[in-house]
Write a structure and sequence with these properties.
InterPro entries: Gfo/Idh/MocA-like_OxRdtase_N, Gfo/Idh/MocA_oxidrdct_glycsds, GFO_IDH_MocA-like_dom, NAD(P)-bd_dom_sf. This protein is of the alpha/beta class. The protein folds into two domains: about 20-140, NAD(P)-binding Rossmann-like Domain (Rossmann fold), CATH 3.40.50.720; about 140-345 and about 350-370, Dihydrodipicolinate Reductase, domain 2 (2-Layer Sandwich), CATH 3.30.360. It is built from ten helices and 15 strands. It has helices at about 30-40, 50-60, 70-75, 90-100, 115-130, 145-155, 190-210, 305, 320-335, 345-365; strands at about 20-25, 45-50, 65, 80-85, 105-110, 135, 160-170, 210-220, 235-240, 245-250, 260-270, 270-275, 280-285, 290-295, 370. A nine-stranded mixed β-sheet has the order 14-13-12-11-7-10-9-8-15. Helix 2 links the parallel strand 2 and strand 3 (about 65). Bound molecules: nicotinamide-adenine-dinucleotide (NAD).
Amino acid sequence: MGSMTTAVSSPSPPSLPALRTAVAGVGMIGRVHLDAVRRTGAPVVGVSASTPARAKEAAAALGVERAFDTSEELVTSDDVDVVHICTPNDAHAGLAELALRAGKHVVCEKPLTTSAATADALAALAAESGRVAAVPFVYRYHPMAAEARARVLDGRAGDVRLLHGHYLQDWLSQPEDTNWRVDAVAGGPSRAFADIGSHWCDLVEWVTGHRISELTAASQTLARSGGLPATEDAVQLLFRTDRGATGTVTVSQISPGRKNRLWFEVDGSTTSLAFDQESPETLFVGSRGENAAVQRDPAVLSPAAARLSVVPGGHPMGYLDCFAAFVRDVHSAVREGGTGGAFPTFDDAARMVRLTEAVLASAADRSWKEVS
Ligand SMILES: NC(=O)c1ccc[n+]([C@@H]2O[C@H](COP(=O)([O-])OP(=O)(O)OC[C@H]3O[C@@H](n4cnc5c(N)ncnc54)[C@H](O)[C@@H]3O)[C@@H](O)[C@H]2O)c1
């Protein structure tokens, strides 16, 4: 095995007590949070679920000491320092507000809320609270996505001209496919865009430093079995950024065969950079001369990408490692008494909720919308 030049630093000075963490909602992503917290060395002291009985079952299955009867009780408990909110979307805002008012540090899943006004109010409350308030737009933590950002920032890409790509899934492609996300109350008024389009936009804005300032959207909505009021299954956007680039993105949960295909390309005046989260060990670097598939290897990456490269090249890293690195950064900020860092915050997430509202409004009246 080769040697690593840089690794993610240890999150916790040994003199500080372990952060007592609790996870509200232990479905798919709650369990990912739980594992990521444990990788930092912090104890998960409690979980909650949709009912007290389910919380007890989950606590036993996951080796967690305490099952809270409700998520409200969990996020306000005196025995908890950091809460991770991993419930369906409609519960995020209320739980995050309770947690911040109770003085907790909060990691809240995306979308932060299902309305922009609530998201902005929550971001303001987080700023007042002086607590860490983070949202897992974790694709920022792929080393090769961080390498793309480093190459834009240090000028190797040249001037950013075009942004394009897609985020495609297939798991809701049939009318009978269902999930709480399909319900406009539990999921919110936007589905595909809020659920996955927001990840693409956050990532591409972070990589380039550009902000989507104007957009026009076209969406498609399948008729669903069961007569639920339907939310959009696919959206295609055309946009301009605040720094003069233009872009397009297709977001879909009805693309057969595409499981979690988040792909973007940044075309600069010198090189193009393309990243595919399903093949995250390489970054395409295109030029008028030779093209390259730069492989993840901390020895050759930019420092910001090498930092995230916790195993040597050739030992594939992926989504779970992104999550662990995100949680490590957030917990480090909590320990160090800061509120910022490399991780996405409630401000970033509120911006994505505003973007989502602009997308819905544009798709509804077929016009261009500015994004504040
Ligand atoms: N950041 C990411 O990459 C990422 C990935 C997947 C999901 N998510 C987000 O995470 C959240 C959960 O998604 P998921 O895929 O884990 O869904 P899921 O359906 O797998 O899990 C949600 C769980 O929450 C439970 N629940 C419902 N109400 C609850 C309550 N009041 N308190 C506690 N638990 C409750 C449900 O019974 C279910 O077990 C969503 O907001 C989603 O957008 C983010």
